[in-house]
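User: quick one, fold this
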Amino acid sequence: MTRPEGPPLSTATLRNLERASGDLASSTVAEMERRLPWFRRMPADQRASVLLLVQNGVAGFVAWLQDLQPAVRLTAEAFRSAPKDISRWVSLRQTVELVRIALELFEQRLPVLAADDAEHAHLTGAVLRYGREIAFSAATSYAAAAEARGAWDARLEALVVDGVVRGDAEESLLSRASALGWEPGAPATVLVGNPPSDDPQQVIYEVRSRAARSGRQVLLSVQGSRLVLVLGGDTEADDVLGRMAQAFGDGAVVAGPTMPSIAEAHRSAADALSGLRAVVGWPAAPRPVRSLDLLPERALAGDPEAEWQLVDRITRPLEEAGGALLETVDTFLEVGGVLEACARKLFVHPNTVRYRLRRATELTGRNANDPRDALVLRIALSVGRLARARGLW
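Assistant:
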């Protein structure tokens, strides 16, 4: 800051400024109360803090006019530290309103204390320059506070995602997620894959910009060589998973099942991570691929949860349905999907085989005529036989 050009102020004018500083500070706070409804609703101790801030501002201005070097340093320190104390209960927009009112009164009250026109012009210019320094100091302090909050939010977000992966207690997870603005009742889906960059800021930008365009909540964390996302909302429509997959780097992207809330998202994370380990077994897997579509590869990789899901979703329904559905599907797969050969082996009409296969598709969601579904069915039947041999069902 440079001292404003012009003649020095007289000793009498400086004394007038010092005597008027207390009244000016009180008048400024009174004007704030009159013009700002939100300021009137503030507790008395907070309004007193603002009054102290204004008093320091007036005193610093008078000191600056008398001696530039130490006054500039002390004033800058005062205004840089003040917003840190009040930023918890006064927003940046509200601070701008307070500073505007204070400067308006400074411009009205201080120049009239000048002894002549030269001092009047000198004081007017000084108020403008001093107000500019106040505004920049306040903006710098709020920016530093915002950066600190952003860094804390990033650490908290990483803790939440890590808690989802580890399956932390529901209460602590919900409390931390709520602090980040996550809706507790929102469905949650976990996606895992490779990060698009080694730059954390670029990763955050890519993920958040795509989530914002999709209108979804998202929490993210880079854990070593993998990027983990917790995506809020329904994922069955609008290809939201496909759009979010574009935020990942090269390689497979696996999405776990959508859970009713973030408290249960650890199940989605476990399935997604299991799928990421096993997806190498299906080179033609889509991107993203659901962990449920990787059940055969996950079972072959030794995931007991995948084995149980294959039995529960395919083998058990076929057996409990009766009507030789399990035998028909097994035989159809054994003969290479040839309908007539299956009918001859079972001693039934081909239409009977068609009906049973259609019924099996309705029960399991898998069509034995589709190559991928045929693989899922074959492995599910094998896993079911092994589980029965071990007495697991």
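User: anything notable?
Assistant: The chain has three domains: 11-148, 184-299, 303-389.
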